[in-house]
Amino acid sequence: MALGLMGCSHARSNNESIDESEARKELAIELKFLQNESERLINKDGKVEDKTFQSYKNDFNLLSASINSTSKVETQSDSELKESIAHLAKDVDTLTEKEYVKSYKRFNSSKTIYEVTLMNNMHDVIDATKTSEESSNVLDSFDDKHFHSSEAQIKKDVGPAISHINTASKYKIELMQEEIQKHRDSFTKLQLEQLKKATHNFDLSLNDQIKSIQSYKPISGDYNISRNFRYNSYDKYTNACVYITDFESNLGIAKAGDFLKKALYKVLLESLFAVFITNAISLFLAFYKYFLLMSQIKHRVHTSYIKVIFHK
To answer: What does the H/E/C string look like for 85-136?
Structure first.
């Protein structure tokens, strides 16, 4: 229903010049589109699909942010829809000729598009796939809850846990993928590749969370299968963070980089711990062999001494 004009036409590069009258015309077209969509949402016949509203919400807030308006859409209430579109129309109408050009360029800017339509969902998904005490990682919560549970208790919660991953995090990935497609002409080839690979790897990470939960066994059972899926999930999360960190860094947004630094720091600590354990075991074995050898030497010396005495 509501796809936005950005999905129907080719976006103009920010480096490409546009005159004031053309900028005014383009923004007027987008405003008219939003007014029509707002009216359709208000006069809906039955329940409106959530994706339709989310698309309208992103289109509205993108135009609003582009013209520096304070009007925003957050919920699907008739009163909010009416008030927000009326407020936005007034703010568009008060723009000066130069402001029309600046607003149009912001409207087509990959930075504005990302910050308004993608970033919140992106960081919610990052939070759902990272492993830390502050995260909303469903697999971590499931593991904490059922580490000592019976098989019957585990089976009872498998369905709700997987449903939460699908309806929350994986749904947000679907929304992001649709927004990326809608605004594909405003991103460079590299930016598109980074966004697509990031969302794809986050999706794979969530798939491995689901597989880990599905194969989860009581502590007395075979935990290896579930654990391996957990490791795979974390690897995919790290891969995704690399792509989104590069993307955000190039836009001058360092937010995702914090997640990657923490992820790499954790990997480093785990690696150091693994090295420590390996070295500790090697050291223990070395000492064990040493003491074993010494005891054998003492035994031989003692035996030889006794033989000498008896010989005498």
So the answer is: HHHHHHHHHCCCHHHHHHHHHHHCCHHHHHHHHCHHHHHHHHHHHCCCCCCC
